[in-house]
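Field: sequence (string)
Field: structure_tokens (string)

Example rows 1 and 2, in order.
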Amino acid sequence: MKYIIGTKVGMMQVFDVNGKQLAATVVSCEPNVVLEIKKNKNIKVGYLDVEKKQRKTKAYNGIFTKVNAQPKEFIREFKGTEGYKVGDLISVDTFSKGQYVDVQGITKGHGFTGAIKRWNFKIGPLAHGAGYPHRYQGSVAFGRGGSQAQRVPKGKKMSGHYGHELVTIQNLVVLDVIKNRNLILLLGAIPGPTGSVVTIKTSVKYPTKKTEYQIITKEIKEEILKENENLEDKEALHKANEEAEAKAAAEAKAAEEAKKAEAAAKQKEKEAAEKAAKAANPAEGAKK
């Protein structure tokens, strides 16, 4: 099982080489530091440097002094991990492109909300002048007698604090891993607002499955543009060849027509000369 802690940057859209639009979530994962390896093989990991060290207690800062590391803002404990030593860094290349992961985070908080927003209850009638009943949740108690005592049962869907819960979204695909910028692109949405801290871990259901998407990166985009430029050059060359062939055909046709006109003119001159000769010697024409 692999883990890494990161910060949700936001969502964006990317395209694969077939032109399909994909919704992607960008997660920034600065290298996590292994702080401790416990007896049960669990590891304690620190994430995100503390801005002001003096705001933390000496006991808290002492955890990081032992491993000669900068104090971290968040400390998490992970289980089922092997092959790590104290002081090791866990970076984004822990995960690979196409791998399935589970993402855990705190959902957006909505404060104290009514039952209609919190549980998607149906609203009441909007007319009949009863004030504001269309947003009420209705009766909440049991009936009378026996086990149906006059009380509100545990777990009753009512108004209350909505959101700000720990939620895990399973089976998200890693679209891309950008190591030089410590970024991971995930296919789909993850819990929490922008800037919230999330945990990415190997998928429980599909730990070995892979589904790779060939998204259009800067390099692929440059290749496509280059191919388009070559294609445009080929089209221009083809068009120039067609124009040259058409011009040559027109010139050949004009030359042939000029040759025919010249031959016709010579024939007319010959006929005119013969006619003039006959007119000058009518006796010879009569003998013939």
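Row 2 begins here:
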Amino acid sequence: MVNPTFQVKKRDGFTVGLSHTLEEEVVQMENTKHYAYFPGCTLKNKALDLDNYARASAEALGFTLDEIPEWQCCGGEYPLAKDEIATKLSSVRALSDAQKEGKDLVTLCSACYNVIKQVNNDMQTDEDIALRVNNYLAHDGIEYHGETKVVHFLEILRDEIGWDNVKKAVKNPFTGKKIGAYYGCLLLRPGKVLQFDDPENPQIIEDFIKAIGGTPVLYAQRNECCGAYTALEDGSIPQKRTQAILGNAADMGADFLVTSCPLCRYNLLKNRGDSPLDVIYFTELLAQALGVKEAANA
């Protein structure tokens, strides 16, 4: 008997019922949540792995990253000047695109997350900024007032998928590996705006490490700045900061560090000197744990 709920029309004109397995696949596709995805510039060149592993991992966990068309660079750092409007326009365009699609906006890069979420807060809370931004964008047919929800990929794992479900999906656990979380500053601050985690005692990456079967290593420097933004003014600052971070993590027994920030990773590896610690994107660990790393590299 043909199941009236699941029917498909073949090319020859006959309508037949789907198999039970295919029915489940159709239901799964219909229930898959789609996010508007802002990859950012670095994930399209120097941080391709961060992007590829995230896409593969998302599909394995039942959600999809739909890249926003014609997105523009967010600027890389949030402009503090109250009268600086032009550098916020690219973020608002991305936020508006997500709103039109009726989707939350997700990003992976710590800097992109920081900038876009702070700009979104401006559009919600600062009438003067919102007015001037919308005046600029009116000729593009855009009027936006902060309606889009901005989330980081890690927040999806924590708040939507749930750590228990991530753990259930793991095929290659990092059993016996001592992993240090490196947050840096952009994921956590300003805390009242980002509301990502406790800026003084964050837990989200440690919970991620537990979910993929590793052992989190707590160390004092995990949420301190790596100094990357000072490199052009004084190259000794990021060198000292890197040595302090990696030295502290090594002293506490970490085998390697995990991060979501491309700039932090670049800076820590560039200035690590003789430290044996590697710094790895969290999406690479996730893809490996889920058994989709090879497919992501194909």
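free_text_note (row 2): The CA atoms of residues 91 and 116 lie 6 Å apart.
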